[in-house]
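=== Given protein ===
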Amino acid sequence: MSTMVMTGGTAGFGAIAAERLMSGETRLIRGARRPTSAGESVPLDLTGLDLVRAFATSVRERLGDTSVNALLLNAGVILPDVDGRTVDGFEKTFAVNHLAHYLLLRLLLPTLADGAIVVLTTSGTHDPATRAGLATPRHADANLLAHPDRDPGRDTRPRKAGEHAYTASKLCAVLTARALSHHPDSQARRLRVVAYDPGQVFGTGLAKGMPFPLRTAWSLLGTRTLSRPMSRLNRSFNSRDAAGNTLADLALGRAAPPDGHTYAALRRARLTWPEPSELARGDELAQALWKDSARLVGLPD
């Protein structure tokens, strides 16, 4: 039996992936704010680093000597501005999407089995070439993203600043996957690391922090009636079923990256392995983000 740990597995396409994983020979531990009705869940709130540490401790206690075969870091949020702060004082979108998951990855890294799979959910919006309509990342400076008020290039328009916080956090996911794949421990244990872009998937919990009209439109576009014709209009649009089943395929090892690739993108329900954005290809930038993130969460490099 495989053992997997997952965030973002109670709503949207993450819930579809979780349901499929639990239907097979898999023990799935999901981090969730509230107990789940099916499977095994452990309380997790990504807005506090101490809460992430408590989750990791609980998972390790439950595991005992059992190793983790797949770690799925799938939860995410987009907010209308960068005014929100976590209990640790960090900008909320960056803290939830990147810092909390980076900390969880580092804490659970020793539990991963040889050949384990790590999937970090990212977004094509990290790449200006996708022309997704959101403000694209100017940098991946962890200190400036954690404290955007210190960023001299910060957009004064709240919505655009919020978009940048989101797309930059997704750039960080691609860079973290890149850094992890080159990590000596990862290479020694032959970990399979993927930054997964599910494309534009409406109807998920991602937009829960947005204004009511946007949340309503997001929900309606996610219905099966509208999602299918939408996917024919834009190759980046995917249904929740397609995105969730592909995430499950990655977790189960049924979709494996070609040598040298850590970025996967779902396009018209087909998994592809393109190059990420130019910024996301920088090894020095990936290492700098890894080290800066470690300092922010209080870990050694």
In short: The first strand starts at residue 2 and ends at 7.
